[in-house]
Design brief:
Structural class: alpha/beta
Number of strands: 16
Mean pLDDT: 95
Order of helices and strands: EHHHEHEHEHEEHEHEHHEEEEEEEE
Largest sheet: 8 strands, parallel
Number of domains: 2
CATH class of the largest domain: Alpha Beta
CATH superfamily of the largest domain: Aldolase class I
Strand content: 15-25%
Number of helices: 10
CATH topology of the largest domain: TIM Barrel
Helix content: 10-25%
Strand order of the largest sheet: 7-6-5-4-3-2-1-8
CATH architecture of the largest domain: Alpha-Beta Barrel
């Protein structure tokens, strides 16, 4: 089964938009190896929009832009595969892609065959320029059928931005992940708004079909296509940790050929990746801070993990520090039970906690504890 855990990789859109080339993709594949990203589990190298010519060929097939990709897509796919990585591409359920290139509406079968012939392992399928009376769920079901008929195993990444209550039907189409939000931009407000919009819908995400809350902006430093002010290192770490806890696919958006040390440390954080790739992939049980003033400004939760372990965590979206008290009754713990916990960011062991626990959350900061239930 594809997507037993959230897919990990890199996508060209956030930094490069239409400025994509064969050399860029090959250099990115090389950087996936040299940076240690592949060894950490990142495996997909994905081209987003703007890769084709503006018109289909005489045979009705999509044609890679020969100026951007002079050797063609099969050559590029073979190179990426030679590195032990997987190759991803982009199309759209509408008549044109979001950038106005030919799209797959009414061409699903021939395009799926084309992608399979290229050696594609991953398809991001967008939602721009859909005819008003065309049924969105049916179009995703149709492309999923086409991919399965192509003869090649291709991970299907549905990207309809949360339209039509996507979480309620997308699993039935055969998709492996689904974009449930609008586009992310490189600032704390955009990132936090996107995450908070999905907290009450986490239970729909599970192995085989994960809620994709958009690509990472970690390390973008207010550069590239989605530049919007940027974030501090601590905020990029907050962003990455939150995506990991929410079990989102992790698709890097920065230029990994030129990562600084802080960005590399964030993207390779073993403890956070271990949470994201937990085989049970269970959603968190959220609860509030016990205050009535803006409870949505924090995300507190308790999460079941494999091997009878648990997470207790808090994320603070506020511009000021917050003290939050977690009453253990509110997460289901009866009297006589306690938690033995470890702060995953510092490694510090916490004395057995019972009845309640205090979380001291810095502004735009978080705490995550991992541990087990014990009896006293």
């Amino acid at each position: 089964m594809l997507a037993k855990t959230p897919p990990l990789g890199w996508n060209s859109w956030n930094t490069f938009a239409e400025n994509i080339t064969e050399d860029l993709l090959m250099e990115t594949a090389d950087a996936m190896i040299s940076s240690g990203l592949k060894d950490a589990g990142y495996e997909y190298v994905v081209i987003d929009d703007c890769w084709s010519l503006r018109q289909r060929g005489a045979d009705g097939r999509l044609i890679a832009d020969p100026e951007k990709f002079p050797h063609g897509m099969k050559y590029l796919a073979d190179y990426i595969h030679s590195k032990g990585l997987k190759f991803g591409m982009y199309s759209c359920a509408g008549t044109r892609t979001c950038a106005g290139y030919p799209s797959s509406f009414e061409y699903e079968l021939v395009d799926a065959q084309t992608f399979a012939g290229f050696g594609v392992d991953f398809l991001k399928y967008d939602f721009c320029n859909k005819p008003r009376h065309a049924d969105g769920p049916l179009l995703y079901h149709r492309m999923s059928l086409a991919l399965k008929a192509s003869g090649r195993e291709i991970l299907f990444s549905a990207c309809n931005w949360g339209s039509d209550h996507v979480e309620t039907w997308i699993r039935s189409t055969g998709a492996h992940m689904y974009r449930s939000t609008g586009d992310i931009f490189d600032n704390f407000q955009s990132m936090s708004d996107i995450a908070r919009s999905r907290i009450d819908k986490l239970a729909y995400s599970a192995p085989g079909c994960f809620d994709d809350i958009d690509m990472l902006v970690c390390g973008m430093r207010n550069k590239g296509n989605v530049a919007a002010g940027g974030m501090r290192d601590e905020e990029y770490l907050f962003h990455f940790a939150l995506w990991c806890v929410m079990q989102s696919p992790l698709m890097i958006g920065c230029d990994i050929r030129d990562m600084d040390a802080a960005t590399k440390a964030t993207l390779l954080n073993k403890e956070l990746l271990r949470i994201n790739q937990d085989v049970e992939a269970r959603p968190a049980f959220p609860f509030n801070c016990g205050r009535r003033d803006h409870p949505e400004r924090e995300f507190l939760g308790f999460k079941h993990l494999a091997d009878n372990e648990f997470l207790l965590f808090g994320f603070n979206f506020n511009d000021k520090a917050r003290d939050c008290f977690v009453e253990f009754y509110d997460i289901g713990l009866p009297a006589g039970c306690a938690l033995r916990l470890r702060d995953i960011m510092t490694g510090a062991e916490v004395p057995a906690a019972k009845d309640y626990m205090r979380l001291q959350l810095p502004a735009h900061g978080f705490q995550i504890y991992r541990g087990k239930l014990i009896t006293l």
